[in-house]
Amino acid sequence: MMMSLSLLPVLLLTLCAALVDDVAAAAPRTFADTDPITGAPVECDRCPPGTFLRASCTSTQRSKCEPCPSGSFTELWNYIGKCLRCGVCGQNQVEKTSCSADSDCQCECKQGYYYKEKYDMCLPHSACSAGLGVMTAGTPHQDTVCNICPNGTFSDVISAQQNCREHRTCGGAGQQLLLKGSSWHDSVCTSCQSTDGADYLKEIIPAFFVHQKMHCRRLRQILNRLLSDDGRRVTAGLSASNLQERINTWVSTATASKLRELPAVLNRAGASGAADKLQSKLRRLDAHLSERCPGNEVEAVLMSE
């Protein structure tokens, strides 16, 4: 019984192949017409793929077929008086196979896009959010498949190509772990050279804003509050990535005391949830730095809170 079941797929494939051959062999190669001179019924030959009917047959003359001119085609045996015009690939498509006399061009989605049957169009591959990595890269026929970064790995970007990366190991040159990595940021290491836990926020803030997925309006409010000391403001029109870059630029030059004010800035901009999360990260950095590097300035900060 098991032998019969294992042979079933092979038999089905063989039958399907034979059926296709039978259909092709049974395709009509002639068509009924009328002799234009005598008016008598005649049976004319159809033209093979790659040609068209230039002149129908008569009682004394067979059908006249001619090759399709450049830019046209016929795929079937036919008796049409003109070849079909070659197709043109649509938006976000590229030509996979050129049009030939007996076959139309074949198109597929261009790089970075995939075909969505529901909409009958090519859509951009989905990008995996921070905390997610690419499990299967998108193809012209399939969208990107993302997966949550497993323990010990992270992704701090929005990408349709990048997979999760392993957390760094804190061990060389006297370094030790200050903050364990998460799914969206790398591990933070210290050699006790920095004297303030807020300095280490600079390592995770770029990934933090990517992970929060804030709207442009919210990011613009935050940036305007950060720049208010200099009397500068950001007008509308910048994308979320542009706004994040400007925030990161501010962070890279900010003092530790200014970085400690960032959770409060987020609160005033209406991002209370993000403020709480960033404040929690800062407290953990401070606590671990105080524990691992006794005698640093962060202890004074903790005592004053």
UniProtKB/TrEMBL annotation:
Keywords: Apoptosis, Disulfide bond, Glycoprotein, Repeat, Secreted, Signal. It is found in: Secreted. TNFR-Cys repeats lie at residues 67-107, 108-146. Its main location: secreted. Pfam families: Death_3, TNFR_c6. The keyword Glycosyltransferase does not apply. The keyword Chloroplast does not apply. Residues 1-18 form the signal peptide. Residues 67-107, 108-146 form the TNFR-Cys domain. One of its GO terms (cellular component) is extracellular region. One of its GO terms (biological process) is apoptotic process. Disulfide bonds join 68-83, 86-99, 89-107, 128-146. This is Tumor necrosis factor receptor superfamily member 6B-like. It comes from Sparus aurata (Gilthead sea bream). The gene is LOC115579471.
